[in-house]
Amino acid sequence: MSDATTYAWLLGRLDISSLAILPAIANPTASEIVGASAAMMVILGGIAVVAMLTWFNWWTPLWRDWLTSTDHKRIGIMYIVLALVMMTRGVLEGVVMRAQQAAGLDGGFLADSHFAELFSTHGTIMIFFVAMPFIAGVINYVMPLQIGARDVSFPVLNQISLALTAIGAALVMISLVLGKFSTGGWPAYPPYTGIAFNPGPGPDYWIWSVAIAGLGSTLSGINFAVTIYKERAPGMKLFYMPLFSWTVLCTAIIMIFAMPPLTVATLTLALDRYLDFHFYTNDLGGNMMNYVNLFWLFGHPEVYLLVLPCYGIFSEIISTFSGKRLYGYNSLVFATMAISVLSFTVWLHHFFTMGQSAQVNAAFGVASMFIAVPTGVKVYDWMATMFRGRIRFSVPIVYATGFLILFVIGGLTGVMLANPTISYQVHNTLFLVAHFHNVIIPGVLFGLLAGYHYWFPKAFGFRLNEGWGYVAATFWIFGFMFTFFPLYVLGVMGMPRRSASYSDPAFEPLTLIAMCGACLIFCALASLLIQLRISVRDRAQTRVPLGDPWNGMTLEWSIPSPPPEYNFAVVPEVTARDAFAEAKEQGNAYPQPTAYEDIEMPRNTSIGAIVLIGGTALGLALVWYVWWLAILSLVVMIGAFVARSFRTDTHKTIPAAEVAAAHQAWLAEVANASPVKRDIETKDTNRGLAALELPQGAA
Ligand code: HEA
Ligand code: HEM
Ligand SMILES: [Cu+2]
């Protein structure tokens, strides 16, 4: 018996040849060296993190304050850190792909299969492990504060959702070091992901990372929706909610209904691969078109799930920095609802060319175009909000302006694609790639970055550096335009998406411009990192402990920065929309409470960490056929859940006296803050400062 079979029970199909670095040593082609360097970056990055945690003695605080925390704010921050780490990889992959295509006339430096792996990981990472966790993070941080809640409805479930998302991200990272990832694109269509075409571990990595993270998103959706229905502060009717919270509610409902089709698609694909089922094969009654339908039944609502909360972020930012209440609040809410419902009626526009009748195509084409109507309503509402506002041109509104101009272009090319006859011409060309980056980058990414800039002072008590903020935003906007506008032209010229190389020299100049654009985007990412570093260094000068750095209108600005664990010392009574702005107008922004009560908060728990470790082991075991490990990790996780269900001391009480002391100290700080100091705290830029009112009515 060979060594491999001797150890098969122990390591499944994992053996020394699975190490991604080895081929680069045996056969150092450019492609292998790029792959091996990426693997080394993951390994060295991992070692660096462990070394840093040990050197600074950060293991205990990491465990006590973060990994076991059930506080929605900390969970939100961890989601965002995860998203930023994964974004670094996603952007680097984008740059490498653009370099490959720029050099791709009759060749390039990457092997075809390596390029295929790159667009598959890039798409998967950007959607599932950048956009989704970033959104989940912002929602987690902001939504409970906006509705006057002390936490989400199910804090422990929240921790588990984060763990499930992190498992997916971990599996994609591990695939750089052990084995290869799928080559089937982010939708992982069979037959490319079928066992006959690709028997390796790649599609299995995709299946388990997406299935596990998708489960986390379903649970998050339930958690967010229940929180909004059940935890609003007294008096906060649904139509008093800030617009961001409204978009969260609609997104949560989309999550609840759109994630299950993805779960079904991934798990049936797994059944095909693991147990020789024939859902998506040509023989034995299978039909791979069913996969395509199921995937886009999820995939289309998914893109609105991503963009709706960002519409919410832009709504908050545009109104705050225009110094005006939102124009057309009701129409914005109804437009959000309309988009959520319509998002479930258009999935077929992703495969107009799959052979259904012209009538069916026409129906879905028209339905897709309908979405332009509520979206247009929103665009006009935002413009009307800015109209005659005293606009403070701070970093978040730079992103918002970039969004308004660029997103409309991306939306309009979407409407073009919704016309089946046009789709027949440009489907699966770079025109499509340009369309979706044109909606996702200005719409989703700019929204999240604007939100990051806007709420950062709330979360950490000091501002992000403005100068580097402008630099990053400018790089993003111009980098985006240089990278993706040429792709519209390339698409119309007929260059297919997902091509590692091409033979038509006419494509070359535009691919070169796109590569330069990608380098600008890389500079944008670097600027964000520099900005963070500098902001942390200078934090003493940019502190905003009073908690209202932008002259905000909603409840999250009415509490200290960073907020206490329980958010609100006394849960506020809400009597109107824009509750904090209203209170300021009435001179009652910081009321003196009549009494304080004990506050009950959930205790820390290690269940999330157990799920993280157990789930990662389970995922790896399934990918590599290590059955004993799969069973063991399942048993451990189930055991942990059973054990937890016996615990009775799941909550702790924060005594009223402690809450009162902290709150009174802060109120005194607010009251003592001279107008000058408050002015400094509200002075994000010098522009338009005259329009600012200082917080009034401090107790
Ligand atoms: C955030 C993500 C996002 C958003 C918001 C959108 C928005 C839209 N998308 Fe896009 N789309 C994607 C992400 C997104 N898309 C992705 C990822 C893919 C490809 C996936 C893949 O294959 O890998 C894709 C692919 C895709 C296709 C498939 C094409 C093909 O495969 O051949 C189609 C076809 O109909 C389409 C249509 C639309 C439409 C009609 C909108 C509309 O919602 C746009 C509405 C907005 C506006 C129109 C602008 C503002 C409106 C006004 C100013 C009012 C005036 C305008 C009019 C009256 C027209 N999209
Ligand atoms: C930041 C700079 C980015 C660059 C340079 C970039 C570049 C690219 C490139 C070169 C491709 C392959 C195009 C092809 O098929 O020929 C691609 C595909 C893709 N990108 Fe990006 N991208 C970026 C950001 C994003 C973001 C932010 C998202 C989503 C949140 C995203 C989602 C996708 C998806 C879903 C695909 C399709 C993958 C597939 O074909 O299956 N990208 N990108
Ligand atoms: Cu769609």
Automatic annotation (TrEMBL):
Give the transmembrane region(s).
33-56, 77-99, 119-142, 154-178, 205-226, 238-271, 291-314, 326-348, 360-377, 397-418, 430-455, 467-490, 510-530, 609-642
Please indicate which superkingdom the organism of origin belongs to. Answer: Bacteria
Q: Which UniProt keywords apply?
A: Cell membrane, Copper, Electron transport, Heme, Iron, Membrane, Metal-binding, Respiratory chain, Transmembrane, Transmembrane helix, Transport
Concerning Gene3D superfamilies, the annotation shows: Cytochrome c oxidase-like, subunit I domain
Primary location recorded for the protein, binned into one broad class: membrane
Write out the annotated subcellular location. Answer: Cell membrane
Q: Record's InterPro entries?
A: Cyt_c_oxase-like_su1_dom, Cyt_c_oxase-like_su1_sf, Cyt_C_Oxase_1, Cyt_c_Oxase_su1_BS
According to its record, how does it sit in the membrane?
A: Multi-pass membrane protein
Q: What is this protein called?
A: Cbb3-type cytochrome c oxidase subunit I
Q: Which organism is it from?
A: Sedimentitalea todarodis
Lineage of the organism: Bacteria, Pseudomonadati, Pseudomonadota, Alphaproteobacteria, Rhodobacterales
